[in-house]
Amino acid sequence: MKSFFHRGINILFKKNLLLTNSITSGAFMGIGDIIQQEIEYQSKVLPRRYDWPRTARMFIVGTIMGPMHHYYYIYLDKVLPYADVKTVVKKIACDQLFASPATLLCFFYGMGTLEKKTLEQSTLEVKQKFVYVYMGDCLFWPPVQFLNFYYLPTHYRVFYINLATMLFNIFLSFIKHYDQKKV
Fold it and tell me: Kind and range of the H or E element at 79?
C-alpha cells in the first residue's frame, strides 16, 4: 500500500505536475462555486440547486489559470530561493502586488469571455467588483501564503494553493454572481 501511495504521489507531483496543477485548479474552482451555489439555494437566492454551465465556466477558467500559477511559483522560487521569514515576506509582497491582481483580472475577463460578454461589459464588471475582491484577497491570502512559502516545497505549492482557493472561490463566486439574474 505504501509503495502504491508513493508511486501515486510521484506520478501526480513530480512527473505530471503541470497537469495536476491545472486540473486541480479547475476542479477546486468548480467545487468552490458549487458550495456558493448551495449557499445561494439554501438562502432562497437560487430557485434551483445548481447552475451547471456556471460551474463549468468556473472550472474552465480555473484550469486555464493552473499553468500560470504553476510557472509563477517555479519562477518565484528561482528568484527568491530561500524560506526564511525575510524572503517569505518578499514572496507574499510579490504575490499581493503582482500575482493576485493578474489572477483576478484573468478570472473576470475569462469568465466574461465564457459568458459571451463584450470587452466593455467585462471591463465595467472589473471596475465594479475588483476593489472588493482585491480587499478580500489581501485579507485571506497573506497568512495562507506564509504557510505556503515557509513550509512547503515548490512541487506542492500549487496544489496547496488550489485547496485554499476553493475556500476563497466561495467568496469570489459570490462577488462574481451576486448581481446576475437568477433563472
Answer: helix 52-79
Global pTM? 0.87
Q: What does the pLDDT look like over 3-46, one tens digit per residue?
A: 765 565 555 556 678 888 899 899 999 999 999 999 999 998 88
Q: Write the pLDDT tens digit of every residue in 49-60.
A: 999 999 999 999
Contact in structure between 130 and 108 (CB atoms under 8 Å): yes
Q: Look up residue 157 and give its three cell numbers.
A: 505549492
Please list, residue by residue across 54-84, b when 16 or more beta carbons sit within 10 angstroms of its beta carbon and e when fewer do: bbebbbbbbbbbbebbbebbbebbeeeeeee
Residue linked to cell 527568491: 80
Task: For the beta carbon of residue 99, count every other beta carbon within 10 angstroms.
Answer: 19
Element (H, E) at 81: none
Chain mean position to CA 24: 10
| Cα 66 to Cα 26: distance, rounded to the nearest angstrom | 7
Measured in degrees and rounded to the nearest 5, phi and psi for residue 50 equal: -135, 140
With a CB cutoff of 8 Å and minimum separation 6, the contacts of 42 are none
Q: Is the pLDDT of residue 83 over 60?
A: yes
- Contact 177/42 with Cβ under 8 angstroms? no
